[in-house]
Design a protein that fits this description.
Layout: H1 6-9, H2 36-44, E1 58-60, E2 63-65, H3 73-81, H4 85-95, H5 99-105, H6 109-112, H7 125-138, E3 154-158, H8 162-173, E4 177-181, H9 190-193, H10 202-214, E5 218-220, H11 231-237, E6 240-243, E7 249-250, E8 263-265, H12 266-280, E9 294-298, H13 302-313, E10 318-322, H14 349-358, E11 363-364, E12 367-374, E13 380-392, E14 398-402, E15 408-411, E16 414-417, E17 421-423, H15 426-429, E18 456-458, H16 461-464, H17 469-488
Parallel strand pairs: 3-4, 3-6, 4-5, 6-18, 8-16, 9-10, 9-16, 10-11
Antiparallel strand pairs: 1-2, 7-17, 12-13, 13-14, 13-15
């Protein structure tokens, strides 16, 4: 590194954010860009380690450690410090097809395994990544680069989320004719409808899709394979298929009173809100509204946080998020050592907004819903809950048990269920003979990605189960490489 003592000389700066209350009046991104001078100092904090764990890309105890894209993080940190932004962009795009997505919504396992983070706050890798790519677009450095020649081979990609888009981008670079099929009316999968605007503005997704189109990728929205077009027809029309439909089957909650009106699945809530916003700036009213309601979100993950932020912008009367587990510690616990992703208490953007508006973090921990209560019109009006605590069971496993006397009744007119996903949706898969793995995912060996049917590959959440965007991009790239090898006998892709 040009600044060998940068990690000692400069402190980590947090990404700039808009005022947490003021931003509730719109759907624009809550983060603000870093100025270049500050970001050069942040780049200088990189130690250029002998063994940079930030891009190891492995999983330890089922959690991500480092960047699975193997981003050349120390290299572009140094180039940013030196002010060589164009070269930094070139390094970034060598390994990551869509830094504008990961730089906004990835939980940054790279920062969790940063060597500086052993004793100090990590290098601001995610902010640097986002600024590099945004500068690349604003400066006009990123232009369509269609392949010089075409192979004559045709590949269909089913699903336009991060795995499908990454596979399409790579296969197009290799010279194949690529067509991406998407069942929704807009391209992007979860990037479009699963992540709200304030985290990922849809103009960022549109911009990338337009670039891919200019480079030769074809997109067919409003087309569900298995419904609007058969898998058999797709096979006839193409030399290979990549299945990248995600794992969007939402997990529901089975309790007394679940049939009550006003209990909605989180992704339905988020999708309808974003679609209405894009279609009509919500003038059409075709969304689930939290306006004036007491909202309870069941589920403590990122999707639940996005529901909190959306309800606040819809002017809910109140919003609370119920988590199954106890509050995380302020610092790493002994069983969560570096370089694992740190499991510590943080105040995400949605919780910061709720705290600024209502005076408290909206999360409640170690709480279990026991039943729903509805009014005479069949509308949910309250949740019955009980507090829980950790105990060691007879089998030696930790389990959550009810605390006697801790029962409560919590008023709610809108309940959002955000307890994760069960695996891929079945509409298409039931019409195939593809072998299935754990959690009903499509069986395909990691690193090979070929399913039980020759010429059909699987990548992303449909193969590995619900995971991170960065892993989806990784698998999309790798599946494209193996598909190219299958089509050509060898591969030009990394």
């Amino acid at each position: 590194m040009g600044k060998a003592t940068g990690f000692l000389d400069y402190e980590r700066e947090q990404a700039k954010e808009r005022d947490p209350v003021a931003r509730l009046d719109d759907w624009r991104e809550y983060q603000l860009p870093f100025d270049e001078k500050s970001l050069q100092k942040q780049g200088a904090r990189c130690m250029d380690c002998g063994t940079p764990f930030c891009h190891t890309g492995i999983e330890i105890t089922d959690g991500p450690t480092g960047c699975p894209l193997y981003n050349l993080i120390p290299e572009w940190n140094d180039l940013v410090y030196r002010g060589r932004w164009k070269e930094a962009l070139d390094r970034l795009l060598k390994t990551n097809n869509f830094p504008e997505f990961t730089g906004r919504v990835c939980p940054a396992p790279c920062e969790g395994s940063c060597t500086v983070a052993i004793s100090d706050p990590a290098v601001a890798i995610k902010s640097i990544e986002r600024t590099i790519i945004d500068k690349g677009f604003s400066e006009g450095w990123i232009t369509p680069t269609p392949p010089a020649r075409r192979t004559g081979k045709r590949v269909a990609v089913i699903g336009s989320g991060p795995a499908g888009l990454a596979a399409a981008d790579q296969l197009n670079k290799a010279g194949h004719h690529v067509t991406v099929y998407e069942k929704s009316d807009r391209i992007g999968g979860l990037l479009m409808y699963g992540i709200p605007n304030m985290k990922l503005d849809k103009s960022v997704v549109f911009r990338r899709v337009q670039l891919l189109e200019a480079e030769g990728v074809s997109f067919v929205p409003n087309t569900e394979i298995g419904v609007d077009m058969s898998m058999e027809q797709l096979k006839k029309d193409n030399d290979a298929i990549i299945l990248a439909i995600g794992a969007l089957k939402q997990r529901d909650i089975e309790l007394e009173g679940r049939e009550s009106a006003g209990i909605e699945l989180a992704m339905d809530y988020l999708t309808q809100n974003t679609k209405s916003l894009l279609d009509s700036d919500q003038a059409d009213g075709r969304f689930i509204s939290a306006a004036g309601k007491d909202v309870i979100v069941i589920g403590g993950g990122d999707t639940g946080a996005d529901c909190v932020a959306t309800a606040l912008r819809q002017k809910s009367h109140s919003v609370v998020q119920f988590g199954k587990y106890p509050q995380l510690p302020a610092k790493r616990s002994d069983d969560n050592p570096w370089p694992e992703q740190p499991q510590v208490y943080t105040l995400d953007y949605a919780y910061e907004e709720a705290k600024a508006l209502f005076g408290r973090d909206p999360r409640e921990y170690a709480i279990k819903t026991t039943r729903f209560e509805k009014d005479e019109h069949g509308q949910v009006k309250a949740l019955h809950t009980v507090q829980t605590k950790k105990e060691l069971g007879d089998d030696g496993r930790v389990q959550m048990v009810d605390i006697p006397g801790s029962e409560r009744v919590c008023p709610a007119q809108l309940v959002l269920v955000a307890i994760g996903f069960e695996g891929p949706e079945e509409t298409l898969l039931q019409k195939t003979n593809l072998q299935r793995g754990a959690r009903n995912t499509v069986k395909a060996a990691y690193g090979k990605y070929m399913t039980s049917e020759e010429g059909v590959f699987a990548a992303g959440d449909v193969r590995r189960g619900q995971s991170l965007i960065v892993w989806a991009i990784h698998e999309g790239r790798e599946a494209a490489r193996e598909c190219d090898r299958y089509l050509m006998g060898s591969t030009v892709l990394p």
